Amino acid sequence: MGSEDLPLMQELSDYGVRITREIAHLKVAGMTFRDLERGSQITLPMWAAEVLIGAGIAEPIEGRLEVQRLAQLLWREKRSISELVDLPPKFYHALRLSFSSLSGTDAESAKALRLYARDLVSLRLSKLLGYAAKGVEPELIQHMTDEERELYVRLRSLIKTWLQSLGLEV
Question: Taking the model in full, what pTM does it have?
């Protein structure tokens, strides 16, 4: 499976959700659920979990990313000058689901979450770009998420090609 398949694999990866209200019948992602009680936990492909969370029918089991938690991650990332800090599992999925669940319900928190997320992602991108410009092998970089690793491999290849065209091979 090639690196171009990563986004599809992420959309199809399993994600646990907790049902937020009683549901007599739910058909999603080719699966049928009956008599779901509030608090029931089910596992679905990521894309289906996003739909249910966006509709207010479910919430992530792992919990969504709160503004305070994102602020802590940003603070840690800023303090670590050249190395990436460890992010929670499925961080970008959780971030996307947090945006879905906050949109329309808590505009102020959604705005703060987006600002912190943008700053955090920008810092991480800057570090990845620095690694790519130096030609660092992806295996040597700790704490990259799967999404970042995919981006890094592509960036590194693009930068290497560009440097070669200038006669500045790394």
Answer: 0.72
**Which domains occur in the chain, in start order?**
14-61 (3.40.5), 64-170 (1.20.58.1030)
What pLDDT, in 10s, does the model give residues 29-88?
787 888 889 988 888 888 888 888 878 888 877 766 888 999 999 999 999 999 999 998
- What is the rounded distance in angstroms from the CA atom of residue 106 to the CA atom of residue 109? 6
- The residue type at 117: A
**CA quadruple 71, 75, 78, 79: dihedral, nearest 10:** -170
DSSP labels for the chain? --GGGHHHHHHHSEEEEEE-S-EEEEEETTEEEEEEPTT-EEEEEHHHHHHHHHTTSEEETT-PPPHHHHHHHHHHHHHSSSSPPP--TTHHHHHHHHHHHHTTT-HHHHHHHHHHHHHHHHHHHHHHHHHHHHT--GGG--S--HHHHHHHHHHHHHHHHHHHHTT---
